[in-house]
């Protein structure tokens, strides 16, 4: 019987247009813009100067604290300037601009490594490599991975959950990774098991990816420490709290972390990055990005250098369709619209979605009819309509008491609202204000 989480959830059209598209390598851009804040926590500190030559994999910004991450050059070239650019958040952030050296062959050779099954490093060495090579969570949160590995003496885990759900409509980067890098992902899981010192991992995959389930079951048939869990298709199954509830039946407490129930969750993209770092000595300088949309001539999945302008990705799929209304960084449920196509790809860029006018236009907002549909679909058991109302009325302290910070921003409430109310927009605003006013102290 297929597992799922019991509370809330929706079933938006999947639109997995690129599910059968193999991952292609995007051409190296002429210039990359590498932000130094590509992760949760303190921005990295720039350690290169203008006119300095850099090579692929060189540290160009050093971790700015424990919860931070190194940034490495994705190309060989020359630093032309240290600048502030608008990133996907819509704010200007510090950025290192590198002009690619077209004469340096290392920029244009797609190095192929043999698969390495033997894990020679100790758990301490694994953690150090992950920290040194700038590995962060690639499922969207971009939490520095070495922090998750640094467990305190009173923090015990017994299970590693691998998130292969990819429940956001349109996105297929993780799906393709599971099909094309199956062995590497399994070895990456074994590396993490060794780092944590445990012997149980479960890979959760929704049942709309039967080929990935079969591929991983085949590889894992002689791996007693690794299981595959097939899940019902329901959004937002990829949320770590929902995944833990679906597979293990454990409930993460309000305000708590997966660690509180003895679990750590990692995305399959993160696991592959771990494999690449530990077995191939490669820092995180590229990732898979889905570029998709119903009006595109062609869509695809691409290996993309960090810092590549989004305009290059759009050009690779046949230019911007005339009916494009929005360009979304991520998927349609949790992604955010970007201002222009000069914004660079970062470690957290999982997809670029081009939405046509007829799909992107918002309908007229009407009064709430108290139908409670948003309450029924909320996977966290909140009252989204109430949280929106409290934000609109600037009643932020009460919003905190109603657990506004528990919202995972999945967008299920806005998706089902018959009055077309921007519920998620208001809740996001409320959470931002709560943080700025520092109302969480007590």
Q: How is the secondary structure organized here?
A:
Elements lengths: L22 E3 L5 E5 L9 E2 L6 E2 L4 E4 L8 E2 L4 E10 L5 E9 L22 H10 L12 H5 L9 E5 L9 H8 L1 H15 L4 E6 L3 H11 L5 E6 L8 H9 L14 E5 H13 L5 E7 L7 E6 L4 H7 L7 E6 L6 E2 L13 E6 H4 L12 H5 L6 H9 L3 H6 L10 H5 L6 H14 L6
Parallel strand pairs: 1-14, 9-10, 9-12, 10-11, 13-17
Antiparallel strand pairs: 2-8, 3-5, 4-7, 5-6, 7-8, 13-14, 15-16, 15-17
Task: Characterize this entry briefly.
The protein has 442 residues and is of the alpha/beta class.
Structure characterization notes:
The chain folds into three domains: 29-101 and 285-358, Ubiquitin-like (UB roll) (Roll), CATH 3.10.20; 123-280, NADH-ubiquinone oxidoreductase 51kDa subunit (Rossmann fold, 3-Layer(aba) Sandwich); 373-436, no CATH class. The mean pLDDT is 95. The chain has helices at residues 123-132, 145-149, 173-180, 182-196, 210-220, 240-248, 268-280, 310-316, 357-360, 373-377, 384-392, 396-401, 412-416, 423-436, and strands at residues 23-25, 31-35, 45-46, 53-54, 59-62, 71-72, 77-86, 92-100, 159-163, 201-206, 226-231, 263-267, 286-292, 300-305, 324-329, 336-337, 351-356. It is an alpha/beta fold and 442 residues long. A hairpin with an 8-residue loop joins strand 5 (59-62) and strand 6. The protein is 27% helix and 19% strand. The strands form four sheets. It has a six-stranded mixed sheet with strand order 1-14-13-17-15-16. It has a four-stranded antiparallel sheet with strand order 2-8-7-4, with no helix packed on it. Strands 11-10-9-12 form a four-stranded parallel sheet, with helices on both faces.
